[in-house]
Write a structure and sequence with these properties.
Blueprint lengths: L2 H14 L9 E3 L6 E3 H6 L15 H8 L5 E3 L18 H12 L5 E8 L2 E8 L10 H17 L3 E7 L7 H5 L1 H14 L4 E9 L13 E4 L10 H8 L10 H6 L5 E2 L2 H20 L1
Parallel strand pairs: 5-6, 6-7, 7-8, 8-9
Antiparallel strand pairs: 1-2, 3-4, 4-5
This protein binds zinc ion.
């Protein structure tokens, strides 16, 4: 902890009275450990002003930061059967869902909206890591299909911001079925001749990497994002080889051709607008 948390913050607290200084006034950068004023961190789109580390972003913020100033409209997503397997570990799945919903004010790990990006119509699906680790269950599969159908209806490109820890274990095989379903969603968009773009953000792992997340016409990633299928130890034990340093980072994947570009968060909106206009010109020709 720095002198800010140990000395300055308690000092401010005693000066103002404990209750008047909320805990979320300061954030600490997980990369360089510097303390950042929460308001400054929001202004910089949760990118550390000291070291440039891209921190995780909630799905509602992602939508707000992606569309033009004209705003966007969120669509309601189809309801899915609750807890199809009646799953229980230390806790019932229904309880975990209830807790996650209360904590995040989201229905599940995906939001879908439409609006303008760089003046072009676009449909955006944003995954929510804050909701049960962005795990892909039936609700995420339905959300992706709804987003794809909306893109086709509006003749707009589909952009998916991906962040996920993998499959929703509590939904078992139902969760695994979302892999082919999400691919069907990408096919709907591609068969309609519309661009499908993915932005891989930290972290992108498991089932999403093995399905729709790697099928973008253009694969974009945020700086430093960890992207992969399995964990380092699992791979090392399987291939019996030591893996290179940072092999799951966006920059490494870019150097080795697995993704097309690494784009800073502050440049993302402009880049998406430019890509849409380029892809649509080609389409018109
Ligand atoms: Zn930092």
């Amino acid at each position: 902890m720095s002198w800010l948390t140990e000395y300055v913050r308690p000092k401010i607290r005693t000066l103002l009275g404990h209750r008047e200084v909320p805990d979320n006034l300061w954030d600490q950068c997980p990369a360089c450990q510097q303390m950042i004023f929460a308001k400054d961190l929001r202004a910089s789109l949760r990118v550390c002003p000291h070291c440039g580390h891209h921190m995780r972003v909630t799905a509602p913020d992602r939508l707000a930061w992606t569309f033009d100033e004209t705003g966007f409209t969120r669509i309601e997503l189809p309801k899915v059967p609750l807890d199809p397997l009646r799953f229980r570990d230390q806790k019932r799945y229904t309880e975990r869902l209830k807790d996650a919903r209360e904590k995040t004010h989201l229905d599940d790990a995906i939001l879908v909206a439409h609006g303008l990006i760089g003046g072009h119509k676009a449909v955006v699906a944003a995954m929510a890591f804050e909701f049960m680790g962005g795990s892909m269950g039936a609700a995420v599969g339905e959300g992706l299909l709804a987003a794809a159908r909306l893109a086709v209806l509006q003749e707009a490109p589909l952009i998916v911001f991906v962040t996920s820890g993998g499959a929703r274990m509590q939904e078992g095989a139902v969760s695994l079925m979302q892999m082919p379903r999400s691919i069907i969603a990408t096919r709907l968009v591609k068969e309609a001749g519309l661009p499908f773009l993915t932005v891989l953000t930290d972290p992108t792992f498991g089932g999403v990497t093995a399905s729709f997340a790697m099928l973008g016409d253009v694969q974009i990633a945020e700086p430093g994002a960890e992207i992969g299928f399995a964990g380092t130890r699992v791979i090392e034990q399987t291939v019996r080889e030591k893996l290179p340093e940072g092999f799951r980072r966006a920059e490494y994947l870019h150097e080795h051709g697995a993704i097309d570009m690494v784009v800073k968060r502050s440049d993302l909106r402009e880049m998406l607008g430019r890509l849409i206009s380029l892809l649509r010109i080609r389409e018109a020709a």
